[in-house]
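**User:**
Make up any protein.

**Assistant:**
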Amino acid sequence: MNDTEIVDSSFSAIINAPIDKIDIPAWCFSLPEKEYQACSPAHIAAGFTTAADGRRMSINVEVIGGSLMVQHYVETLGMRDHLILESVSDIFTPTGRTTIHIVWELSARAIDDRTCEFTNHVRSTATDEFRSFLDRQGIPFDVFRAQRAPMSIAHNRGETPLFAASIERAALRNCAASPDLETRDAEAKL
C-alpha cells in the first residue's frame, strides 16, 4: 500500500455466458439507469457522455459511507473483455467537497466455452486536494483510510455479483441474436 492509496478492492463472480458474447464496454456505456440502481442500494444515477478529448465517459452517482460521490469515469482501455476507467471523483461530505482518484477495472476471462469469471477491481487514491481537505480538519490519512476501506470493500463485494448478472443478461441477449450459437447448441444436444 502506498502513502496515497485509500482502497484496493477486487471481487469476482461467475458469468454463465461464452466469452465471445461478452462486451463489457458496450454494457457499461449503455447500462440503463434502473439496472445500475438495481446493482447496489448505494447507486443513485448513471449516465453517459464524452470527455473533452472525445473518449467515452460514464457518470455514476452513489453514496458510500454517507458521502455522495459523483464519478466521472473516462475510458482508458476498452476491449470486449477488459475495460479500464479513470475518474477524479467529486465527494460531497458534511464538512465540504473534495476529490479522489479512482481506477475502475472490469474484466472477464473464459473458464470454459459457456462460462466466464468476471472481476470488478476498484483502486482509489487521495488527490492533493483530498490530502489538504483532511489536513484542514486534523484527520490523519491513516485514520480516514482505516474507516473508509471497510465501507468501500463492502460496496464492491455487494455490487460485483449483480454487475456480473447484468453483464450475463446482456451477453445472453447477444447469444439470442447469434444464429451460430443457436446452431452449435442444437448440435450439442444431438
